# Entry
Amino acid sequence: MKILVVGVKGFGKMHLSALNRLNNLEIDIVERDNDVINFVKSKYNINNVYSNYDSALKNKYDIIDLIIPHNLHLEFGIKALKTGANLLMEKPISTNPSDGLKIIREAKKNGTKFMVLDQYFFDPSVVEAKNIIKSGKLGRIHSIIVRDQRFYSKTGWRQQPEYIGGGSLIDGGIHYINTMLEFGGNYNNIIGKSMHGGSSLNGEDTTSALFLFSSGAMGLLYYSWAYMESPQVPAFEVIGSEGSLYEDPKSRTDWDIDTKIRTVYGDLYLNGRKMNIKKYDVYTREISEFIDAVKNNEEVPFKPEMELRDLIAVKRIYNNMIS
# Structure
């Protein structure tokens, strides 16, 4: 199976590390930075290197994997699908829902597979937490708390709202919105506010939001890239009439490209007792399951409509901010 990976300077290395753990793949890349090219060629099995996306598209690929600025997702995604390739791309699906819907429709028109990668959806603790919620062990869920905080001082395209589509919420925060909605389900309303707190971003870097779920539960989201020296706290807590569930931040793995098993969240505490979650590498899992869907002509494990749902929630927070 031939795969083209577009953009390996940053998070693209994570994609390459996962792809190189799988068998029978021929990998080409699109990259212009010579230092990055030399690094990935020394570390991974790379066949061909292209400095130009259109030049690479003259070849036939089974899968094209895009790790590029968000504002390029529509243009590059449509081009990939028109070649007949199946499409992977990093979140978000686009900078706005209408463009995301165009990519979904193009994939359906061409009869090709399309999936937005979100390792948080595949995390073993999220999978187990959803099973616990569905089992009724927690009783009636009344509160869900999801949060993440860090300090961001990097430079690059993420600093610019026109490239990223907003700020930290549409970039890293959309992962946590996915967790919130996977736990809480459909919602009636979202009330929130995004602001600039003091990171290197030019757009928003801090968001607080209240989700009012159709079930009657409430969800509290806090996400910030402007929190210096932040404490380790659970990334999520689910509280019900019969018990509680929360994530253990001390048992998280690191995300180094050489780490054998990388997860997003730590283990779970159910009613005060630690559960040892069976772990697997989430990056390899999400890509391998997409490849299986392509090979077997099956539905992709993370439907693009679900990622579109998450983006719509981001935009509702942006557009309906309290004053």
User: Anything to note?
Assistant: Residues 137 and 242 are 7 Å apart (CA to CA).
